[in-house]
Amino acid sequence: MTEDFIPAARPLIGEEERAAVDSVLASGMLAQGEEVAAFEKEFSQVLLDGRPTVAVNSGTSGLHLGLLAAGVGPGDEVVVPSFTFAATANSVALTGATPVFADIELDHYTMDVHHARSLINERTKGIMPVHLYGHPFDGPSFLSLADEHGIDIYEDAAQAHGASFEGNMVGTFGKFAMFSLYPTKNMTSGEGGMVSSADEDVVRSLRLLRNQGMHKQYENELVGFNARMTDLHAAIGRVQLTKVLAWTKKRQANAEFLSQNLSGVGLPKVAQGAEHVYHQYTIRVPEDRDGLAKALRDEYNIGSGVYYPVPNHRLPSFARQEDLPNTELAAKEVLSLPVHPSLTSQHLERIVTAVNALVEAGS
Fold first, then answer.
1. What are the distances in angstroms from CA 212 to CA 83, 97, 208, 301?
2. Which CATH number is associated with domain 15-241?
3. What is the C-alpha to C-alpha distance for residues 269 and 109, in angstroms, rounded to an integer?
4. In terms of Cα–Cα distance, which of 293, 312, 313, 311 is closest to 303?
5. What pLDDT is stored for residue 3 in this prediction?
6. Measured distance CA(7)–CA(191) in Å, rounded
7. What are the residue boundaries of the structural domains of the chain, listed by start?
8. pTM higher than 0.70
9. Could you tell me the pLDDT band of residue 363, with boundaries at 50, 70 and 90?
10. Residue among 92, 94, 69 nearest 82 (CA)
11. CATH number for the domain formed by residue range(s) 244-361
12. Do β-strands 98-102 and 77-81 pair in parallel, antiparallel, or remain unpaired?
């Protein structure tokens, strides 16, 4: 009998989420309403130590509107990592500003603060490092850099719900921070994003920008967007929010098992003072990463993912000539194994057996 397929990621949607959606449908209030307001408040309390949040229709919208609310626009530069999903750089470009690509450090795949320093000039409005794969970037070091140069920090926390650094929650370092609620993230609302900020002006601008520039109907204060979250999505998110901390513990336990038992590959590292929430469990495979991924699927029915094989600076949309050696190396070697909370002990043992056997055989 063929063993069941182990996907690289799997959304967890249960009866509670279905019941919450049915309740919204029965209420007749489907657009941005009481569910959205409640979700914003609860997200703030559970994951952000009370920092205000604004719900939007996607993580990308959250980055775009956050940058606009923070005053980023034409003529500005924002330093971003090239080793990330394209939405990070896209959101900067959509404001009319220019993304400037920084290299990463290879221990945690987050932006190299020293390289970022070398890119700052009189046009630099801010820096937008990414808490990649669920590992937080070094918040204090980037805040020190920002203070030194009088610029802002913007957090791309799309993959880092509940992560922290030196006791400070991810999402509390920057001028604003964005969390994605896409289906494969550590928690989901079906689709959506949350933007947090301690700046009242930024929060007010975010609320205007997501709603056609209106605080009151037909009183458009600025040119805005339709980036509202629906109550249907918020209802799912509210239920997921009650589960995400327990799911994180399971992800961390799964990651611990993998790290204790895998051999022959580069294992994820966790910085001192960091809490990694393992959106991805990412190994390094110096020899034939793609061959290993194919063999895992073909021979063992195990999925995996390569995030990200083409750095942003080499995408056709940007096509920059940059010297980013760590970024290029990571793009060739990283492979993310299943770590999601629906894995059983049998699944974890299969993953370890498969990876160790294939690496030993040179696949």
1. 33, 22, 7, 47
2. 3.40.640.10
3. 10
4. 293
5. 85
6. 20
7. 15-241, 244-361
8. yes
9. low
10. 92
11. 3.90.1150.10
12. parallel
Q: Which two tokens stand for residue 186?
A: 């550590």
Query: How many residues does this entry show for the chain?
Result: 363
Identical fold for domains 15-241 and 244-361, yes or no, is: no
Model pLDDT for residues 275-299, shown as the tens digit of each residue: 999 999 999 999 999 999 999 999 9
For residues 7-18, average pLDDT: 95
d(CA 327, CA 156): 18
Tokens 């799911």 sit on residue: 247
Structure tokens at 122: 């009189």
Q: pLDDT by residue (tens digit) across 216-270?
A: 888 889 999 999 999 999 999 999 999 999 999 999 999 999 999 999 999 999 9
For residue 350, what are the contacts with CB-CB under 8 A and spacing of at least 6? 3, 6, 300, 302
